[in-house]
Amino acid sequence: MTATRILGRNAPRVDGYVKVTGKAEFAGDLVVPGMLHGKVLRSHLPHARIVRVTANAAENLPGVVAVLTGNDLLDLKNWRYGHAIKDRPIIAVDRVRFVGEPVAAVAAETAHIAYEALGLIEVEYEDLPVVGNLDASLTVGALQLHDMGSLRAGLFHGLGEFKVGPGNVCYHHAFDRGDIGAVFSDADIVVEGDYTFPAVYQYAMEPHTVIAEHGGDHIIVRASCQHPFLVRAELADLFEVPTANVRVIVPYLGGGFGSKSYTKMEPLAVALARKAGRPVRMANRVDEAMVTTRRHNMKCWMRTAASDKGVLLAREVRIWLDTGAYADNGPRVVATAADAAPGPYRWQAVKVDAWGLYTNTAPAGSYRAFGATHLAWIGESQVDEIARRAQLDRVQIRVDNLLRPGEEVRPGGKPLDADLVSDIRIIAGHLDWDSPKSPDTGRGLGVSLLAAGAHPVSSAIVRLEADGSATLLMSSTEMGQGVRTVFSQLVAQELAMEVEKVTVPGADTQKTPYDRSTGASRSTTLGGTAVQRAAQDVRRQLQVATSEIWGVAPETIELREGAVRHADKVLRYSDLFLRYFGLAGGEFIGQGRVQPVDEGRGSYAAGPVFWEVCIGGAEVSMDRDTGRIRVNKLVSVADVGQAINPHLVEAQEMGGAMQGLGNALFEEMLYENGQLLNSTLLDYHVPSINDLPDRFVSSISENEDGPGPYGIKGVGEGALAGVPPAIVNAVADLGIAMYELPLTSERIWRAMQRDSA
Amino acid sequence: MLVSTKADLIALRATINGELVKADVEPRETLLDFLRDRLGLKGAKRSCDVQVCGACTVLLDGEPVSACCTLAYEVCNRRVTTIEGLSHNGKLHPIQRAFLDSVAVQCGFCTSGMVLTVKSLLEEHPQPTTAQIKTYLHGNLCRCTGYWNIITAVKQAAQLMDGGRDTLP
Question: Can you give the pLDDT at residue A601?
């Protein structure tokens, strides 16, 4: 087995067998002895004061063990949580701020009894004015959702000094450079517009599920969460127990896409278990998952200036993101959207203001490629419009203006680590850009950058066993992306062993070492670095042990095909164990870590860890009588530095692109005065197999220009953010400028009427 | 009083994965709850609860149904196949093999239902066209794969099964 056969090889998924046989365990499949079933009574009002909660009848129902209300939290020093801003009560205490907010929770012997008890709880509300959307939130004198002065930064605020805004501003992020006014007043071409992006639902097929145990000063949580260590920290903080006493166990996740990032229902489940004195299982339905977290809807004003030759000069952007009733990951979404707003171009002047605003809607947080998905289609549609006015080809204007590798993306941050010109040419090639097309066919493409990687702290432990197999202890969550497979390949690569001999159990914060999170396309890059180092640590130990046996220098010992070698000497790992430990046992344990100021890699402090390339192209045809769009072809490029497992890269690209298609064409959570109108999958449509474009073409760009092992970068989000710009620009290529997503037939038809009037 | 009492129970006899099962079920008990909570057959997953997503698909007399919207008593004297009934003694069914080989599995939450629907498809159309595959699978959502590799897997399974002939007894 040579090195190249593992790296870049399409190793089969290590979790494939258990998944095709239905044996893979998800949180909902677990049973804890004595476990009760928890159900949540949710507010049907978007904004109200809670006058009284009467739960006696529910408590007296046979089979009910506990009913939790806000009053049960008051012995806690702090009953509000939130990794960015501690603004969210574990359960409503005196006020509800969105339809779906937990008001009471019941733990009972069966789920049926718990449901039935919910109907016996009486809640007396006093209506408050509803801040139903961004316009209402921005109105001067609008009712404030939060007592802003009392809000405190969360444990993982991570965005510098914590400041609360005036009115309903949850977070403001701004930067500017150059003389924006002067550049705009001298520009030949200025394109300007107002845009909106809808609220959308991540729909991970497995809704959030938690089993919580609370006893004495110990907490055990089995949860469908992406970031077990951040959940652990928040639970320790809320329930005032030592961090080491909180154990978070994560089985396989049925998709995440950001919906299971940070802390969601875990505090409520723990609080209910604490009151019940027994383990409690809580599982969201889809309508509950939808109001647990969603993607931010947005309004945006943008203008872009250029010379008559199509040289991009300046861009000014104002962004208003609706974070709903609680911040969740809103501040980070605001910052990432602001980062994505200028696009990957050279500017003389840039000015960006982005605000996150509270409204009486479901909390908004992470969803795959947040920020870039919001902004890329807007910036890229303006670049296309400038190309048309300057009479330039739309690929050419990008080739002329795109940043080159090593150029500054933002002052002081990581320089560009990708070859965007090459990538955009690949996209144009896949689209047969210069080939003739019918009048009802449009082509479009777009490129943007996403600040990826999140905070660079990960660690890993590799245990090499006496039979030559290995266990990797690592806390990245397997949610479909294939992280356990890729990590197995990295260990196998470094220890010259077979991928199949590496076992990767799931995260258990009491046993597996710290990993900041699974998201922001960070696992292969940052987690992978820790894994590689842990395996290299074992490798060094094998070399030292062998050198003692053979009396040769450690660095002259080679690892190949499951054996240590020197000249004509060969010792299989199992034989090395026998010789070194004197029995068919013992262990070599290696550890690896990555941190902000990192040996050999400089500092990650300026961020981001890497720039994820969001790029896509589309060819569409349109029915001019109905405005219906058909996507003939979708294309993408995965700019990954180097693919550890090309099949898994392609699989993620295809999945991301399909989600992007849903975001671009039809997905939208419809809110009316704080009420969600389409809260089931019957009326919220996600892409089905019938929504497939006729063709999908993807290629992998490998320039070994990433910060991870062997020059790798993350993947998984760029394809999503690349699709809306491609489709919007393809529709504009048909002569229809769109300012509002999704591009439903009705919206396009109305735009055609507008343009012909 | 909504809480069920013993008097409500219905005697159920059904063949589940080839074995006769007898149980007393509540009138409101869904097939999904019965399979998962009483028989421990957890391959069928709960997701949308409204017969849209297909994650809970099982075969009832060979036809795909959503177990979340089927009552347990409805399977009286009928034949139910779940994902656990598809592979025998660790030997994968050709559809399962094809899903693995075609990288048609990511998170795995849709996989059980998807595989079972494909089994029914291939019995009706041993060499299905892409259009037939789409018609059959539009009731099985997948959020990870973007469906491309699933279509590939179905076609590969059709080949492995040599014109729809199930290699299993």
Answer: 66
Could you report the predicted ipTM of this complex, rounded to two decimals?
0.96
CA-wise closest residue to A413 among A380, A450, A448, A378: A450
CATH number for the domain running over B94-160: 1.10.150.120
DSSP per-residue letters across A634-665: EEEEEE-SS-SSHHHHHHHHHHHHHHHHHHHH
* A286 burial level (CB within 10 Å; 0-12, 13-18, 19+): buried
Q: Where are the domains of chain B?
A: 6-85, 94-160
Note the pLDDT tens digit of each residue in A342-352. Answer: 999 999 999 99
Asked if residues B75 and B17 have their Cβ atoms less than 8 Å apart, the reply is no
User: For the whole model, what pTM was predicted?
Assistant: 0.97
pLDDT-derived band at A2, boundaries 50, 70, 90: very low
Dihedral over alpha carbons A478, A480, A481, A484 (to 10 degrees): 40
- Could you tell me if B33 and B18 are in contact, meaning their C-beta atoms sit under 8 angstroms apart? no
* Alpha carbon of A651: minimum distance to chain B alpha carbons (Å): 6
Spatial separation of the C-alpha atoms in residues A429 and A373, rounded to whole Å: 23
> What DSSP state is assigned to residue A676?
E
Which of A410, A138, A179 has the alpha carbon at shortest distance from A316? A179
Q: Is there a cis peptide before residue A724, judged by omega within 30 degrees of 0?
A: no
Contact criterion met (CB < 8 Å) for B45 and A206: yes
Question: CB–CB of A104/A55 below 8 Å?
Answer: yes
Q: Are A77 and A140 in contact (CB under 8 A)?
A: no
Alpha-carbon gap: A545 to the closest alpha carbon of chain B (Å): 39
Domain A33-130+206-254+259-290, CATH among 3.90.1170.50, 3.40.630.30, 3.40.50.1820, 3.10.20.580: 3.90.1170.50
Name the residue facing A651 among B87, B100, B106 (closest C-beta).
B106
Does A24 sit within 8 Å of B146, measured CB to CB? no
The phi and psi torsions of B81 (rounded to 5 degrees) equal -120, 125
Residue of A20, A206, A692 best to disrupt the B interface, most CBs of B under 10 A: A20
Nearest-neighbour CA in chain A from B139: distance (Å):
8
A3-24+455-603: which CATH topology?
Aldehyde Oxidoreductase; domain 4 (3.30.365)
CA dist A105 → A35, A116, A280 (Å):
15, 12, 11
E strand or H helix at B137: helix B130-137
pLDDT in tens, A501-530: 999 999 999 999 999 999 999 999 999 999
Structural domain spans, chain A: 3-24+455-603, 33-130+206-254+259-290, 297-453+608-756
Contact A350, A337 (CB under 8 A): no
